[in-house]
Amino acid sequence: MDTVVNVKVGPQFYKYGQGAMEMIPDILNEYGAKRVLLVHGTISWEKARPYLEFLDEDFAIEYEKYNGECSYNEANRLAKLVEDGNFDFIIGVGGGKLCDLVYYVGSLTKKPFGVVPTLASNCAPWAPLSVMYKDNGLAEGKTEHYKRQAAFLITDPTLVIDAPIKFFIAGIADTLAKWYESDMILEQPQFEANNFLMLARHSARICKDVLAEDGLKAIEDMRNGNVSTEFIKVSEVIFGVAGLVGGFGDKYARNTAAHAIHDAISAYLPGVHNYLHGEKVAYGIFYQLALEGKWQVIDELIPMYEALSLPKSLTEMGEYPLPEEELNNIVELVNKKQKVHLLPMTINEAVLKKAIIDLEKYINTEV
């Protein structure tokens, strides 16, 4: 089997610590940046701005608020703004959707860019791909940027800890998926000779182990505003180490059933738009485990899910039972995801549909 992978390690410069923002001018100077477009959100920007006001002293900064979605329309709008304004560097300050957006705008414009994540909710600040949404928030696939990575990922834990806890919990769930989505694939003997795939597997194991050991303590510390070792360790796993899993493992470790079902329910069930990405992926982990027949692992994870109020089923999300047509549409979309077929098991629409139904029955019985 050909296991040649596209390796995308991560940002060219990474720093996560108090005072880390002070490194940004040095990097902008390395790129000869003069005119900088800084793209930001709303609430997160109010908290982040005091950390970055010093940039106005040496650079021509223009501030642009994005529309709240990482959509093709918004990306094209910002790309035109970059070109018309003759900007030579882009900085994104905000959450996962904003980081994804800036990655894609950088790809469209071929301009260097950096990101300052304001919360730890996923690996979007690290991973060179963008999850795309329609302007109304429904999922619309993704774009991959194999040859372009951020010039920097820099942020401060005193900023990240000031975010809503629900985003952090969603980030823990999204990161937990790194192990469960890649486990069955990378445990196969034919991959053992590929060093980078084994690095992906080791990175995924770090994600699982750190979250199991320190996740609850990190959440409690965040609730108390305590920038503890555990909080730094867990948040760094979420937006850093998690990105290494797909960066080292390419298609074999990026995502399989958990994210495929996320995309499918996001595309066909408008009601799940009220749930964060990581919360939907949490359900996706249980779906993947049901697909693999690993009911004991589901049992082991249920206490953690209940402690973190993560959804275990579509029923809990208020979306089940489903009309047959919607159920078939979801299954059809999951089946079209090529990476689901990397799982070493029979995958077809009948199998995928059965897993949805079986999981709902199992969770409802457990309750």
From TrEMBL:
Record carries keyword Oxidoreductase: yes
Q: Which residues bind NAD(+)?
A: 96-100, 118-121, 129, 133
UniProt xrefs under InterPro entries:
ADH_Fe/GldA, ADH_Fe_CS, Glycerol_DH
Instruction: Alphabetically list the UniProt keywords.
Output: Metal-binding, NAD, Oxidoreductase, Zinc
Q: Which residues bind glycerol?
A: 174, 259, 277
Q: Which GO terms describe its molecular function?
A: metal ion binding; oxidoreductase activity, acting on CH-OH group of donors
Coiled coil ranges (UniProt) are none
Q: Which ranges carry the Alcohol dehydrogenase iron-type/glycerol dehydrogenase GldA domain?
A: 11-157
The record, for SUPFAM superfamilies, names: Dehydroquinate synthase-like
Cofactor(s) this protein cannot do without: Zn(2+)
| Cofactor binding remark | Binds 1 zinc ion per subunit.
Per the record, the similarity remark reads: Belongs to the iron-containing alcohol dehydrogenase family.
What is the name listed in the Swiss-Prot or TrEMBL entry for this protein? Alcohol dehydrogenase iron-type
Ranked from the top, the taxonomy reads:
Bacteria, Bacillati, Bacillota, Bacilli, Lactobacillales
